Each structure stands twice: as structure tokens, then as C-alpha cells.
Amino acid sequence: MRNIYPNIFKFNKKNLLRAQKLLKKNNVIGVPTETVYGLAGNAYSEKSIKKIYKLKKRPKKNPLIVHYYDLKILKRDAIIDKNFEKLYKKFSPGPLTYILKKKSSSKLCNLTSSNLKSVAVRFPKNKIIRSILRNISFPLAIPSANISESISPVRAKDIIDDFGKKINFIFDGGFSKIGLESTVINLIGKIQILRPGFISPNEIGKVLKRKIIISKNFKKIRSPGLLKRHYSPGIPMKLNCKKNEYKAAFIVFGKKYKNKNNLFNLSPKGNLKEAAKNLYKIFRAIKKLKYKKINVVKIPNKGIGVAINDRLKKASR
Ligand code: TXA
Ligand code: MG
Questions:
Q1: CA distances from 103 to 61, 202, 257 (A)
Q2: All domains in the chain, ordered by first residue
């Protein structure tokens, strides 16, 4: 049976074949992953990649992440080393993106990684996207399915908020399990985190037996997408607030807040993973309610709280 939205499809064998066929024909489709929903296109096809940039209004100098099922096809496109192998064994499939050297013989379309010599690769864990990737002969470029700089989608319907009918096939995979984008780690030269996410510097450090820092100088490592305002509901936002103001939306965390008007609790239990999962949902709800201002309490800066604070900071610029 079809969903009430004619472009949202439930996952079954017939629709899986349909999605794969669309991708083979250089179309762009909406897909769930465990982090956020994405717009998927054949990473070897310039036609597909151009469509992605155009749909997202994304600057061409902001490279995309290429998603693989496993190492088989990856090895044709990128150079891997011992550090990658250790991390892959521990964290993939899952919410970790690796920056690797691109092979000169790679079939990846140059625009996919903005003509850089490096490529960002990820092995998503979500069952639907893995089924799609399992038996196609090309990897998928999948940026988050939102217009550049705005809020990432965490369910199929969110994609329609930004794109309407422009995306005519979206797989319904329910709410994203994690709700924040993957951790991005640079493995070329100095190993460091370019974008914090669900997997923490500590966990990565344990596997590589060294201290891993979150890079503060993104410019130098040419990751333009990580520089400016992002993940934003487009409403002025103030961080580290102790109390709210009249008529503003108040994003809070923890049990001490009683359910009052204008209050949006990321996690009444005070659980940071739950807060991460709710962050974009709450941004979207506040936007729909047409608030003119958002105040946010201080969020603990540990575990996935580091990634939450990173997104809040970028959304508040
Ligand atoms: O969780 C995720 O990673 C989601 C889901 C859909 O997989 N995807 C995602 O893609 O967040 P996107 O395009 O919204 O973010 C990709 C980030 C950008 O900030 C980009 O600058 C960075 O990865 N990136 C991509 N290729 C890079 C490269 N070669 N070197 C450095 N940074 C790169
Ligand atoms: Mg994005």
C-alpha cells in the first residue's frame, strides 16, 4: 500500500528494485540512514552528482560523502592503510566517515569530491540503504537531504519540507536512529576529527592508541562545508541561557524543567543520545510554529554532547 504522500515508499522487494533502477538511470532518490536522511545518486555519474548539487543549492566546492556496502568497490576508488583498517573493523558499518586518498584510477566523478585528491567514504548501517548498496555496481554519493545550510531531515516527510515533489522517490525508514550526521575523521597526514558525531574522539583514540583531537582549523584541511553557518532553522538562536524570554522558544535538557508553554525538552531524562535524536526534530517543530527567537540552555559537553554543541554553535551563527 502507498503512503499518503505519493513520493514516499515503504520498503519491500518491488520498491527496492525500483529504487536501484532509478539510481542506475542517474536519478536522485531520498534514503534513510542511521544518522540522517540523504539524497542518493550514482557517485560515478556526473549527471547524478550535478543533480544533487543543484537540488541542494550546494556550493560546488563542498565535497560529498561516498557511501559503500563494503571494501570491495571501495578498494577501486581509495587508498587504504592500517589505521583505516583498524577503525573499519571496529566502527563500520556505522556512523563514521573516513577521509582517504583517492586513487588516480578511480571512477568517481571529479565533482563528487570537489576535484580534491581526497575522498570522504562511509559504510552506513541502516538496513534499507545497505540493501540498496548490496547489489549495485557503483557507490552512492549521499549528502543530507536538505537545502544547503538548513536542518538535516530525520524522517521521510522532512525531505518534502525542503524539496516538495522535486524528489519523486523517498524510502520510508521511520525516524533516524541517531539523528545527527556521522563523525568525519581525516586519515591523510594529521589524524583528526573534522566533524564531531556519535563516535567520539575517545573511542577512536582507543582503537588507534593515540590522542585524537577535533580540528579547529578547518580552512587548512580544505573542508569548506564545515566552515560556515549550517544545520540552521533560520531563526536567531542564543546559547547557554539560564532562562527564557517572553514569546521565545526555549530548548532545554534534563528533568528540572516543568512542561510549560514554549518549552522544548531535548531529553527530560537527561540522556544525551536521546537529545541528539531529538535536536533536529525540535528545530523543525519550532520553525513550523513560526517562533522569532530561540534560547537554548547549556548542554553537557561530553560524549555525543560535543556533537550536539557543535551543531548548536553552527546553527546559531
Ligand atoms: O551522516 C552523514 O554523514 C550523512 C548521511 C546522509 O550519510 N551525510 C552527510 O553528508 O552529512 P553532507 O554532505 O551533509 O556532509 C558531508 C561533510 C561536509 O561537511 C563536507 O565538507 C565533508 O563531509 N567532506 C566531504 N568530502 C570531504 C573531503 N574530501 N575532505 C574533507 N571533508 C569532506
Ligand atoms: Mg549536510
A1: 20, 30, 53
A2: 8-208 (3.90.870.10), 237-315 (3.40.50.11030)
Whether the model clears a pTM of 0.85, i.e. scores above it, the answer is yes
Q: Ligand 2: distance of its center to the CA of 36 in Å?
A: 9
pLDDT tens for 244-302 read 998 999 999 999 998 788 999 999 999 999 999 999 999 999 999 999 999 999 999 99
| Protein residues near ligand 2, an ion, with CB under 5 A | 144
Ligand 1 atom closest to Cα of residue 142 = 6
Specify the residue with its C-alpha closest to ligand 1, atom 20: 225
What pLDDT does residue 3 have? 56
- CA dist list (Å): 37 to 107, 160, 222, 280, 304: 25, 12, 25, 12, 19
What does the DSSP assignment read for 64-133? PEEE-SSHHHHHHHEE--HHHHHHHHHH-SSSEEEEEEEPTT--S-GGGGTT-SEEEEE----HHHHHHH
What lines the ligand 1 site, CB under 6 Å?
A: 33, 35-36, 38, 62-65, 97, 99, 113, 116, 118-120, 122, 124, 142-144, 181-182, 184, 194-195, 223-226
